[in-house]
Design goal:
By secondary structure, this protein is α+β, with helices and mostly antiparallel strands. The protein is built from 7 helices and 13 strands. It is elongated.
Length: about 300
Amino acid sequence: MTVYADVLVGVNIIITYVLIVSVRLICQLATSKWGVGIASFIGGLSALIIFYEDMPLVGSVIYKIVTGALIVGVGFLPRSVRGFFKVFAGFFAVSFLFGGVMYATELTFKPQNILYVNGTVYFDMSITYLVGSVLLIYGAFMVVNFLLTKHAVKNKIYEVKITFRNTEATLRGFVDTGNNLKYGISARPVIIGELSALAPLFTFEELKALKSGMYENIPQGLVGKIHLVPCQTLSGDGFLPAIIPDRVVIKSGNKRTDEVKLCLALSNKRLSDGEYNVILHSSVADFRWKESKAYEKHT
């Protein structure tokens, strides 16, 4: 079979994209469009190894590990070493599954238009078919992502206790994989809460000022405590007022995490139809979680 470099790279860009999106959906992780695009392109270029037919098995494995690490690093931008290895393991699990399917297909059916060498797949297809495949795969994953997100809203709600100026408010939180907001040089993860649900943290005058958006007339008690977090909305770029809570305790089942390095943005709008009233950061899985009993003994 004649292998064309442009088709080879194009096909493996699609395959890498599918692998990244699969890992994102399975592990409920966040990605950026630019990160996924660059990582997919890296995966496409790495497929050129198919032309090195005599590469030893050890060399092929090392090449795949290095390439996989680069794709994971660029595509997911893990916040910690632990987070990196979690995504890395997920990416290779999905990759091995895909590779096993391709290898089994080649051995069983011996298709004439599929070549599998050095862990790299080549499909002999036209540009029209290639573009159509991209659109079909993208649409399928958008549908799956929507269905999984709806399922998560109903079944993965966190209890979130926020402390500010010695006052507490308890909310229901949902992890939005699209929330990658960070604030300031310290890059604090930003969570977004409904102002109405956070009312216990503020006085009547403070709530009135926050709802009106008149931050220059903020009451004395909030002077120096209100920050503006840039964000993107459906209507364009904008800012959300935010505070730095003294403490945020997030509970899921029998586990808790106590995060003090968070920024709480305040939204005048409802975030859901009542299922939750605070949107948690996409990196919540990387926080330090511990058993509730162990936590309660120290509080």
